[in-house]
Specification:
There is one protein chain. It contains 5 helices and 2 strands. By secondary structure, the chain is mostly helical. It has a two-stranded antiparallel sheet with strand order 1-2. α1 (about 50-60) runs antiparallel to α2, α3 packs parallel to α5 (about 135-150) and α4 (about 105-125) runs antiparallel to α5. It is globular.
């Protein structure tokens, strides 16, 4: 249940922020009353393979913000020993989101941070292909995109730059 607080912000019954504004495909808020892109439900517990499949579909559709929410659910609900993996994947999706929104500095930073996180997790866990994820290829993709946005200084097309999580490059 949402309600507006005295300052006009959406709050639930306990006073926690609950932004009910519609969003575009990159997660940016739109004016109230505008048709937006359906948001990802929060707090969904999925099998890891289902997480990767759903995130891949969202990335391929040019919705990295939504893919980040899927990874975030895995990060929060998965086993402790995998939290760093899912957090790193969420950082990659958010980095692509920022790069597509035109925040090239933040996008490049998050892409590099996510690349390092998934590589580090893979090395520590001794797993280079968890759930079919190609961690080395994802890290290389992220660094290439970070270098591209640094060099060009312009927004990228999220659908064009969507990675293939289970291999095959971008």
């Amino acid at each position: 249940m949402s309600s507006a607080s005295d300052d006009g912000r959406d709050r639930d019954a306990e006073g926690r922020a609950r932004n009910a504004r519609p969003r575009d495909g990159l997660g940016r808020p739109l004016p109230y009353g505008t048709d937006g892109v359906e948001r990802q439900p929060e707090g969904v517990v999925r099998a890891p393979e289902d997480t990767v499949t759903e995130a891949q579909a969202l990335l391929a559709a040019g919705k990295p913000f939504h893919a980040h929410e899927v990874f975030e659910d895995a990060w929060k609900s998965g086993p402790d020993e995998e939290r760093a993996l899912w957090r790193g994947l969420a950082q990659l999706a958010v980095g692509l989101t920022h790069a597509a929104r035109g925040n090239v500095t933040g996008g490049a930073r998050l892409l590099r941070r996510g690349a390092g996180a998934v590589e580090e997790w893979g090395a520590q866990a001794g797993r280079s292909r968890p759930y079919g994820l190609e961690l080395a290829q994802l890290a290389a993709w992220a660094r290439e995109l970070a270098d591209t946005v640094d060099k060009d200084g312009a927004a990228v097309d999220a659908e064009v730059w969507a990675p293939r999580l289970r291999g095959g490059g971008a």
